[in-house]
Amino acid sequence: MYRRNYVNEINFVTGNIHKLKEVEGILRPYGIKVKMIKVKKIEIQADELIAIAEYAAINAAKEAGVPVVVEDAGLFIEALRGFPGPYSSYVFKTIGNEGIIKLMKDITDRHARFISVVAFAEPEGYVRTFVGVAEGLISVEPRGSMGFGFDPIFIPYEGDGRTFAEMSLDEKNRISHRGKAFRSLAKWLTGHKVIP
Ligand code: ITT
Questions:
Q1: Pocket lined around ligand 1, Cβ cut-off 6 Å
Q2: Model pTM greater than 0.70?
Q3: Is the CB of residue 103 less than 8 Å from the CB of residue 154?
């Protein structure tokens, strides 16, 4: 079970510095510090982000010998039947934003969602996940230079028409998949009830 003395700091296993910055901002109001730890993050080729995150968190916690948090996120495009989904990292590195824009040429249904799965695991095998979703549209062309990854081509419905890359870190955190998932984690860690 989760123990109280871990509340004010989490060990975040990530190699993505942008994610780290966003998570620091999300957890600051809860008084939770974020320590970046580098443990090998095994990513299985499962089509399910939850399975990927749970597996990675349990392994990382065992390897590190302390409770850890991992996050797995992806962009799911409706008209492409959920592509790139769990393969977002690889697809971003290969075809990038321009490639997605090309795939979406002449497609009128531009609906997409970002999903974030945050998994908290302890070395003994306890694991708990929190999910956050941001719904939106794929833009016609990339806009903005903030954020990372697919941010320049994603227009969240909860925003004002700007892409995530046109928003400050705080603005994005307020409505992003990551903000939602990590706020649920923070509420759980600090003892509030999480409303599903
Ligand atoms: P980890 O070390 O934490 O795994 P990662 O960059 O591999 O970092 P993910 O597997 O969770 O992270 O995310 C896969 C890709 O999805 C990521 O590399 C981005 O291209 C994209 N992505 C995830 N969250 C995003 C966000 O908030 N904005 C834009 N793109 C995002």
A1: 14-16, 19, 41, 71-75, 88-89, 92, 114, 147-151, 164, 176, 178
A2: yes
A3: no
